[in-house]
Specification:
Blueprint lengths: L1 E9 L3 H8 L2 H7 L6 E5 L10 E8 L2 E13 L3 E8 L4 E11 L2 E11 L3 H32 L2 H4 L9
Antiparallel strand pairs: 1-7, 2-3, 3-4, 4-5, 5-6, 6-7
Helix pairs in contact: 1-3, 2-3
């Protein structure tokens, strides 16, 4: 199993960061490069405990579907989504939030396992791990930028901002 850990420091309240991280709308904005869209499940707004969403996106030139479910939820401290079906053998993404020196630290712990045994492990090592890390870094960049921008930009996501 491959594990990616990232920490992003954000100059915004923890509640805002938590909500932006679970925003379906902001997720689609952060994955524009893959053409990611919702095909079933929660299609907009904030995903909640027990809800699922099925995404369709193009990775490595191939259209793929992936369904994930929110399996743990502790607002505004953490939530976890896990793959129900998709291209991976399994994945689990823990989203953790805490405050340090008036900043929110958003920590991602992303664990995934590819199918096909040793071939999958080789793919993880050669390119898939880096590819997934880049997707997460872009997502975190968009969350940080949105959380830290002025109110005018946030009005686009006003239903997501509680502060």
């Amino acid at each position: 199993m491959t594990q990616i850990e990232l920490s992003t420091h954000i100059n915004a309240p923890i509640e805002r960061c938590f909500d932006l991280a679970r925003s379906i709308d902001l997720h689609m904005e952060s994955t524009k490069q893959t053409g990611e869209t919702v095909i079933t499940g929660r299609a907009s707004g904030l995903i909640e405990l027990g809800e699922t969403v099925t995404w369709r996106a193009k990775h490595f030139g191939i259209w793929q579907n992936l369904t994930s479910k929110i399996t743990e939820f502790d607002s505004p401290n953490s939530f976890t989504d896990e793959m129900v079906s998709g291209a991976f053998k399994s994945f689990r993404h823990e989203h953790l939030f805490y405050t340090v020196n008036n900043q929110t630290v958003m920590k991602d712990i992303f664990l995934f396992e590819s199918p096909y045994g040793w071939l999958g492990r080789m793919a993880n090592f050669l390119f898939l791990g880096l590819y997934m890390e880049r997707l997460l870094l872009e997502r975190n960049r968009v969350i940080k930028e949105t959380a830290e921008t002025t109110y005018d930009r946030l009005t686009k996501f006003s239903k997501l901002c509680k502060s």
